[in-house]
Recover the amino acids of this structure.
């Protein structure tokens, strides 16, 4: 997911020592305490899904400590709010890499923020795993459609990419919903524009017609001009690339104008807040999201139960499970490094760099399915789900994979 596209350059960072000999990482019991950073929007725009990421990591860390996943090591969470802003995300990445106890980070939520953070983590040889970034270029380079090249070996994700999500949505719109004329809108951001573009080309390839295209700005509230264009276009579907903050307003204004066609979006729209804010206007709208509905996964039953019992804020449904698995991958990598070093944690920057290598070799059953990464750092879990608002709640209507 993405909010802003600006990429801020970052100089190489000096990595402070990290490991078993750091005096500030020793607990009173003599065990080593390592920190897992979390970067996400924890307030304001997109905070519903951002908080789901934070608490997904927290539950994984609590489970690791309770069940002694790494003997002699305890983990804690350091969560920083990026406010969905690239500059803030970059500053947070610098704070993580400058903290000698931080061994890796989970996040960010937004792909545009990730663009500003990747180089910081790479310079520090620190692993970064996003549970939600879907922009293909983050792992496969800016020319991913024609020539894939991995930009940073320290960056991974447990979410699949828009290259698959956009095509999956187009296929369902054309073959599942039998829609023939789509109006495509995006929010001009990396995630939204990229996803909308992939849907656009996929829908046309299947034989559909694009009734028109338009762009909005994040933060806009009056979409009357857009509604008029859509109404006059004769479209039987609106596809929106962007976040729920704008799409919830667009669908309300569409329905109020008598345009009774569904609005279809990506994982940036899949949040309970969308339905709560749009109200009855959301009925029948659709969104794709990564993976399988977490509530239906037997392995995630305890996670869901714990999240609810703790009364955690935010929405775990979109990325909570993928955040849990991202944190688990870092924790399991620490154990692999420790085991390979005669039961001791390496000193200095060796721990961080070796954790990166161990994460690359991840191969375990997580609560969302098998956790593994290909040569680009992309997840091996390619499953996607289409959800539709039915009786005021998101209901899964199709789960599968898309190969193009």
């Amino acid at each position: 997911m993405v909010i802003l596209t600006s990429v801020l350059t970052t100089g190489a960072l000096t990595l402070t020592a990290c490991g078993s000999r750091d005096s500030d990482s020793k607990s009173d019991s003599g065990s080593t305490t390592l920190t897992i950073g979390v970067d996400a929007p924890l307030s304001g725009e997109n905070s519903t899904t951002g908080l789901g990421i934070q608490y997904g990591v927290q539950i994984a860390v609590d489970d690791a400590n309770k069940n002694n996943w790494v003997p002699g090591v305890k983990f804690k969470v350091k969560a920083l709010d990026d406010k969905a802003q690239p500059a803030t995300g970059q500053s947070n990445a610098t704070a993580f890499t400058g903290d000698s106890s931080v061994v890796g980070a989970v996040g960010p939520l937004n792909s545009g923020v990730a663009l500003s953070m990747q180089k910081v983590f790479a310079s520090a040889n620190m692993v970064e795993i996003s549970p939600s970034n879907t922009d293909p270029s983050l792992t496969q380079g800016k020319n991913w459609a024609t020539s894939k090249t991995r930009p940073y070996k320290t960056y991974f994700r447990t979410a699949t990419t828009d290259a698959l999500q956009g095509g999956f949505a187009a296929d369902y719109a054309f073959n599942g919903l039998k829609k023939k004329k789509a109006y495509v809108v995006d929010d001009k951001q990396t995630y939204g524009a990229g996803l909308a573009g992939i849907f656009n080309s996929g829908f046309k390839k299947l034989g559909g017609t694009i009734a028109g295209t338009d762009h909005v700005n994040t933060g806009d509230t009056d979409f009357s001009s857009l509604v008029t264009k859509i109404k006059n276009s004769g479209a039987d579907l609106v596809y929106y690339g962007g976040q729920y903050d704008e799409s919830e307003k667009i669908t309300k204004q569409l329905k109020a104008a008598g345009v009774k066609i569904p609005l279809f979006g990506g994982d940036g729209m899949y949040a309970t807040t969308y339905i709560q804010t749009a109200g009855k206007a959301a009925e029948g709208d659709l969104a794709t999201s990564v993976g399988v509905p977490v509530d239906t996964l037997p392995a995630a039953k305890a996670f869901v139960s714990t999240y609810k019992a703790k009364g955690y804020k935010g929405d775990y449904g979109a990325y909570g499970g993928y955040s849990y698995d991202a944190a688990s991958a870092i924790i399991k990598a620490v154990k692999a490094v420790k085991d390979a070093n005669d039961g001791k944690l390496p000193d200095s920057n060796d721990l961080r760099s070796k954790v990166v290598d161990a994460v690359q070799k991840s191969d375990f059953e997580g609560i969302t399915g098998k956790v593994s990464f290909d040569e680009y750092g992309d997840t091996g879990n390619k499953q996607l789900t289409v959800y539709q608002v039915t009786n005021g709640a998101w209901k899964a209507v199709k789960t599968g994979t898309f190969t193009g």
